[in-house]
Design brief:
With 216 residues, the chain is an alpha/beta fold. Helix content is 42%, strand content 12%. The protein has eight helices and seven strands; from the N terminus they run H-H-E-E-H-E-H-E-H-E-H-E-H-E-H. Strand 6, helix 7 and strand 7 form a beta-alpha-beta unit.
Length: 216
């Protein structure tokens, strides 16, 4: 019955029907323009570096962050007990967590874990640990397959080996507090962001990481 009434109404008011159609098309046009302006058509200054989202989209998917945990995300002084979250892992510095989340959200970078903590959890578990702290990388890897403390090498050596094994991965940044990384070959050292152990990934370090990943 209601459908029949509607058919009578529309057939009796062709002008109203045409006007509604034009109005609908115009609204869709406006929404598309807003989406283009807010997304692929924008050039904005994000977190201290200039990015072109649409132009660099394919390039961004290949970016990697070689990430340490202690001194980058965990900044508790050595003389203080480290707070644990309910999942049993260390609590991250809140500002450092937000800065890493911004870095990943903007660059779509994957994480390559260099921290000695990497041997304690599987990749799936690492995803959960990061997600509960507001950090959602597209993928997580480990710098190598070593799985015991005895098998771990020096941080600088492990990073250099990773770079040699991933020659097609030019778009990476190393975020660490280990000063021994100053001894890396210059092309790798230039991609390092060394944080202060009790400050971690602050805004200055985040902006430097953005610059390394995005500027060509």
């Amino acid at each position: 019955m209601d459908r029949e009434r509607n058919n009578v109404f529309w057939s009796a008011t062709p002008g109203y029907s045409l006007f509604s159609l034009y109005l609908l098309v115009y609204i869709i046009y406006l929404l598309l323009q807003l989406r283009i302006y807010a997304g692929f058509g924008r050039d904005k200054h994000h977190y201290g570096v200039y990015t072109q989202v649409g132009q660099n989209y394919k390039h961004l998917k290949l970016m990697k962050i070689l990430l340490d945990i202690d001194g980058v995300l965990v900044t508790t002084p050595a003389w203080k007990p480290v707070e644990l979250l309910p999942n049993g892992f260390l609590k991250f510095n809140e500002k450092a967590s937000k800065n890493l989340a911004k870095l990943i959200a903007e660059t779509k970078a994957s994480i390559v874990l260099t921290s000695t903590h990497r041997i304690n959890y599987t990749i799936i578990e690492w995803h959960k640990l990061f997600e509960t702290r507001g950090i959602i990388p597209s993928s997580i890897f480990k710098v190598n397959d070593n799985s015991t403390v005895a098998s771990l090498g020096k941080r600088a050596n492990e990073i250099e080996e990773w770079v040699k094994s991933n020659k097609d991965s030019d778009d990476f940044v190393v975020i660490d507090d280990d000063l021994s990384l100053n001894g890396l070959p210059k092309p790798i050292k230039d991609k390092c962001v060394l944080t202060k152990p009790m400050i971690g990934l602050d805004e200055e370090a985040m902006n430097k990481a953005f610059k390394i990943l995005l500027e060509k």
